[in-house]
Amino acid sequence: MFSGSMVALATPMYADGGLDWDSLHNLVEWHIEQGTRAIVAVGTTGESATLSVNEHLEVIRRVVDQVAGRIPVIAGTGANSVTEAVELTENAAKCGADACLLVTPYYNKPTQEGLYQHYKAIARAVAIPQILYNVPGRTAVDMLPETVRRLSSIGNIVGIKEATGDLDRARELLEILPQDFAVYSGDDATALELMLAGGHGDISVTANVAPAAVAQMCEAALKGDSETARAIDQRIQVLHRALFLESNPIPVKWALCEMGRIDSGIRLPLTPLSAQHHGALREALRSAGVL
């Protein structure tokens, strides 16, 4: 089972939007050195929505090749089309990914039965371990706990990234799902409480800029050391909030650029962080001890 701090890795780009492979290489090495337990390549934070299929798969391949088995690589392969999701998932498996993360189908607003059939079809088509991803604030569809429970009986569906930030929802999932089915936080601000309640880790945006702190917080929480975990989390809560001053990954890419780790590139329709937020995010980075 994957556990601990799993970074939802930003995809570095030059100012013209071209992919910056050297910075990607450096980010991967930095995360391994800092204690990140798994890398999620080309998820929401990785700008999956604006990468071409070839770019998408090339990022996955390069991350897998560079990691070389040192930590797991989880590939973002979700889509609102079963055919596209199967194609991405098949290719991620061929690239050597350890698992895939599949967001709920966006825009077309399926029923709960439609969600069940969507994930069932992908799981049957590709044997790789698969993690569900529920983020209704972006997709306009909410996968309810009963649907997750039904899907948990499919052998290669192994977990869920629950990104509602609703701790009551998270506790309900932990109550009704098998113990070997992983529940991961997709909301940094509430990740600590989810792990202390029995969750298995944090698929994190904040880990992009504070990998050591998030890794240490997760490790303490999973060991039940709530005092240590809360002390670390209190120090980085300001980052959890500041990294969502505008839509993710706008703030996190600006922060990484400010830290000198990537160039300033981001693809339309996303635009660079508004100047009015620069001071607040810079101060949050300083307060958390990462700038």
TrEMBL record:
Protein name, entry field: 4-hydroxy-tetrahydrodipicolinate synthase
Function: Catalyzes the condensation of (S)-aspartate-beta-semialdehyde [(S)-ASA] and pyruvate to 4-hydroxy-tetrahydrodipicolinate (HTPA).
Quaternary data: Homotetramer; dimer of dimers.
Biochemical pathway: Amino-acid biosynthesis; L-lysine biosynthesis via DAP pathway; (S)-tetrahydrodipicolinate from L-aspartate: step 3/4
Catalytic site positions: 133 (proton donor/acceptor), 161 (schiff-base intermediate with substrate)
Subcellular location: Cytoplasm
Source organism of this protein record: Microbulbifer yueqingensis
Entry-linked InterPro entries: Aldolase_TIM, DapA, DapA-like, Schiff_base-form_aldolases_AS, Schiff_base-form_aldolases_CS
Superkingdom per UniProt: Bacteria
Main subcellular location of this protein, as a coarse class: cytoplasm
Family: Belongs to the DapA family.
